[in-house]
Amino acid sequence: TLFTLVMTASLVFVRHGEERAAAMAQVRFIAATYNKSLSNSLWELDMVSAQLQLEALAQFPMVGHAVLIASTGQRLHQHKKNYSKVLEPHDSALLWQETLVSPLYHDRVVGQLTVYIDEDALWEKIQTDTLHILGGELVKGLLLGLFITWLISRLVTRHLSHLARHAASMQPTALDQPIT
Q1: Which residues contact 85 (CB under 8 A, 6 or more apart)?
Q2: Element (H, E) at 136
Q3: Which of 10, 16, 56, 66 has the most CB atoms less than 10 A away?
Q4: Cα separation of 62 and 52, whole Å?
């Protein structure tokens, strides 16, 4: 069981890294998808459209909070209703920033999009994976225990029972008879 716990802990550690990378890839893809339409909205100074797009962007599973800063200085925020924390900008491992450029003049910056990973959703996924791993290890351990019990019963206990029956049937005058 100690080996199982050590292996489970190492699997959870590996899964955490994988899930974090997958969440970052998902956030990068989402940001890239919204890049052009947000750039157009900022270029046209259509902040209502930009806010609606930001609201839609924040509803993706691994997105917890999104910030859009226009080159005019306007700042739009959007987060999930159940999102409990806003990460500090220095935690760069859990955010993706993308510069938005003008659709007509590619050298003009119209804003910046920052998308934060929903750390609560990430940990919830890791906890679910951990429970699945532990459940699988429990089933494997139970099946292995049953197999070992059957094997010992079959190979050892049966022969010991046979020897006990033979010893009980032995007479002091017939100690030289072989066990059959």
Answers
A1: 64, 119, 120
A2: helix 119-152
A3: 66
A4: 18
